Amino acid sequence: MVDKILMVICDGLGDRPVEALGHKTPLQSAFRPHLNNFAMGGACGIMDLIAPGIRPGSDTAHLALFGFDPYKVYTGRGPFEAMGVGMEVRPGDVALRCNFASVDDKLSIVDRRAGRIKEGTAELAKALDGWEYEGVKVYFKEGTEHRGVLLLRAPGLSPAISDGDPHEEGRKVPLVEPRAPDAALTARVVNAFVSRSHAILKDHPVNRQRVAAGLRPANIILPRGAGIMPHLPSWKDRFGMKAAAIAGVALVKGICRVTGMEVLEVKGATGGLDTDMNAKVEAAMKALRDNDLVFVNIKAADLCGHDGDHKTKTAVAARIDKAMGLLWKDFPEDTYLALAADHSTPCCVKDHTGDPVPLAIFGRGVRTDDVKTYDEIACARGGLGRLRGTDLLQVMLDLTERTEKFGA
Amino acid sequence: MVDKILMVICDGLGDRPVEALGHKTPLQSAFRPHLNNFAMGGACGIMDLIAPGIRPGSDTAHLALFGFDPYKVYTGRGPFEAMGVGMEVRPGDVALRCNFASVDDKLSIVDRRAGRIKEGTAELAKALDGWEYEGVKVYFKEGTEHRGVLLLRAPGLSPAISDGDPHEEGRKVPLVEPRAPDAALTARVVNAFVSRSHAILKDHPVNRQRVAAGLRPANIILPRGAGIMPHLPSWKDRFGMKAAAIAGVALVKGICRVTGMEVLEVKGATGGLDTDMNAKVEAAMKALRDNDLVFVNIKAADLCGHDGDHKTKTAVAARIDKAMGLLWKDFPEDTYLALAADHSTPCCVKDHTGDPVPLAIFGRGVRTDDVKTYDEIACARGGLGRLRGTDLLQVMLDLTERTEKFGA
Q: For B110-224, where are the alpha helices, taking DSSP H only?
């Protein structure tokens, strides 16, 4: 009977000392007896998801946590943006980041962000989504504000094309050019899509209303930054493992899916501040019964970091602790827990930073050190020292005896 | 006068907390005043021989300790298997792992392991060892049970050949095929050796006796996994150093030899549990007089780990301590000691694991930290942090002022 791996990743939990909290981090300020129990009984350390001082995106951080070198598999943001807006992305799909923009009759760009449009993009996107051209399936979905994602699906697509966005107003919408012989089809489809977007959007009711209200029309789509979704080997192919994931956020769910995890839907797990953390932890414990690895992402702390709200972040850490109490109470004997974050989101920066995250590994026989609390400062003195994101899975595979000896 | 380097590697000494030892590791449980003295007066840390979570073999670990990236120089197990059975291996030699197998008259494989033969293989191997074909010298030696090693020596050999083992019973012995133009000679020699092995072994007295006793004859050799011994630059060429090694185990001795170390024979240094550790340490101290670097491998702890015997492993650690007391008593002023292990072999796993090993560096002027004991847990809080195996030699070269400035 092989042991199991549970990864609990508290999104953006890492922070820096906050003056108003008596120079403690939100995590240090939170009542967290259960998190501390895992640290006290486990082996602790700090972890740079990518490398020291590198600010991880949620996408690259999760790729690293799943054992992939993001510098090798992160081939452009397009496919990950697509996942972020909730599109299904499959290996081989080419995706492009897009802007809703305003052009005049001669296709000169008046505003690259269509007057920073905020409403109506869902309707506009719906009019463009689901098309086929030269055998390529074309999908489009709106993102936040003026942003959107274009996704192409067919065998043999290449992302080696130039941008359809001159990044400058007053210029004409450029034709996309192939930069490699095998990218000719991709370029033709993108150009056809841009033409079609203008044809459909220019008289769309949403834009008529905008013009009537004195706003700029979102009458064309400008695509850029084409990327292809790499073929990532599955957990089964890599390690003979069955893996499941619990996450509320579309981007994280998407990455879990493309690495071959089953993404479990948990009622109340929203990915927002209101997320039901208890339900997530309970679902993870249940999923451990018939999976080799279970991954849980709890998003709420990151949102507080982006808002610069250390008070709510402290409260969120205490809520995470309470949920983890359910796991502590019935910790399965055959399981090794990795408790960490995917990056720091310090309230003073309001964005991801390269600060390392606290890590605790808990389970039978780990080298318990004398760290007594789970936080950014105490864990740095733990027995694991300072690890990289891609190391963590390897260490967990080793603890559960899934690794091969290198040599004899 | 340049300072000297002494590396003492306690094979497989690293472990995990053992419940029966009060949740201490065998090393933590051992009476070890001298090991502790080195830690207390030195700089401590933990070390991943290859990388976190990677299980090192003894071969790859020692390559790393000697400053070679095993991912670059470890080109197949054959040559290292040859060293492991005590064959002399030179750069350019091609070696193959082999099975003694049973075939019928039509060269169909009846048993890939010759009835798991245990005795008589030394005699059979002797009948095959020492031959020459097309100018290639051919050596063969038995390993444990049904295993053996074939070694070819000549200029211009290539290991790019297919296996002579179909890895399946009921099939014919396949001819080895070259996979590159320069491997034609190697393939011909291996094929000739396999034919010859059948011709010689089929009527060998050992096999006649086996057949008479109702056992399967070991009447052919099946070679696989060809590898070439890389040309490793010598200590002299790399650093202008004279290096000597003291080790009981054939594989470690072999690696020391191919890196250009003089392997010193020490009476009573067996590589087993009965090894005379005092004699090894005394010999090392003597060798320091006319060498720049002396390497000592003490094997016994690894054997206890493989046996899952934490009691004997604790006793072995205490014996290592006693032997190291001789060094402590007369520690040479001009020497820097690195005290570590080549990997962990936890009693609960009974095999090498990726757990890091404790490291202490002792010598004039090192940055003494507040670590008071030499063990897996305490050293993790030391001033060296967490290093890689290939880092250690570099650090020792730097302490002894043998490194060049990178830049100006």
A: 121-128, 184-201, 205-212
CB contact under 8 A, B349 and A384: no
Angle between helices B310-329 and B300-307 (to 10 degrees): 170
How would you class B77 by CB atoms within 10 Å of its CB: exposed for 0-12, middle for 13-18, buried for 19 or more? buried
Query: Average pLDDT, stretch B34-38?
Result: 98
Of the candidates B55, B376, B385, which has its C-beta nearest A403's C-beta?
Answer: B55
> How many helices, marked H, and strands, marked E, lie in chain B?
14, 15
B68 touches A at CB < 8 Å: no
Place of tokens 């030394």: B122
pLDDT in tens, A84-129: 899 999 999 999 999 999 999 999 999 999 999 999 999 999 999 9
Residue A72: per-residue pLDDT: 93
The total of other beta-carbon atoms located within 10 Å of residue A268's CB is 13
pLDDT in tens, A270-287: 888 989 999 999 999 999
Name, in order, each residue with C-beta under 8 angstroms of B212's C-beta and a sequence gap of 6 or more: none
The set of residues, in sequence order, having a beta carbon less than 8 Å from that of A126 and lying 6+ positions away, is none
CA A34 from centroid of its chain's CA atoms: 27
Q: Decide if A306 contacts A350 (C-beta within 8 A).
A: yes
- Chain A residues in contact with B84 by the CB 8 A cut-off are 408
Written as one letter, the residue type at B347 is: C
Between helix B58-65 and helix B250-258 the angle, nearest 10°, is 40
Q: Are A95 and A81 in contact (CB under 8 A)?
A: yes
Secondary structure (DSSP) of B204-215: -HHHHHHHHTTP
**pLDDT above 70: percentage of residues in chain B:** 100
B313-338 average pLDDT score: 98
Residue A295, helix vs strand vs coil? strand
Give the CATH H-level superfamily of domain A4-73+232-399.
Answer: Alkaline Phosphatase, subunit A (3.40.720.10)
CB-based contact A391 B16, cutoff 8 Å: no
Beta bridge partners of B100: B221
What size, in residues, is chain A? 408
Extents of the domains making up chain B: 4-73+232-399, 79-228
B159, B171 in Cβ contact below 8 A? no
**Strand ranges, E, within B127-260:** 131-133, 136-142, 147-153, 220-228, 243-246
The verdict on A195 touching B (C-beta cutoff 8 Å) is no
A290-310: average pLDDT:
97
* Closest by Cβ to B354, choosing from A369, A370, A398: A398
> Which string of b and e fits A15-38 if b means at least 16 CB within 10 Å?
bbbbeebeebbbbbbbebebbbbb
Nearest to A230 by CA among A75, A106, A59: A75
B203: Cβ–Cβ under 8 A, 6 or more apart, which residues? none
Question: In this predicted complex, what is the ipTM?
Answer: 0.88
In Å, how far are B203, B327, B373, B379 from B317, measured between CA atoms?
A: 50, 15, 13, 16
* A window 370-399, beta carbon within 8 A of B: 370, 381-388, 391, 393-398
Give the pLDDT score at A294. 98
Nearest CA in chain B to A378: B381
Q: pLDDT at position A89, please? A: 94
Task: Give dist(CA B321, CA B363) in Å, integer.
Answer: 18
pLDDT for B45 beyond 80:
yes
Residue B58 contacts A where some CB pair is shorter than 8 Å: yes
Q: Which residues pair with A152 in a beta bridge?
A: A94, A138
Select from B46, B55, B61 the Cβ nearest to the Cβ of A398: B55
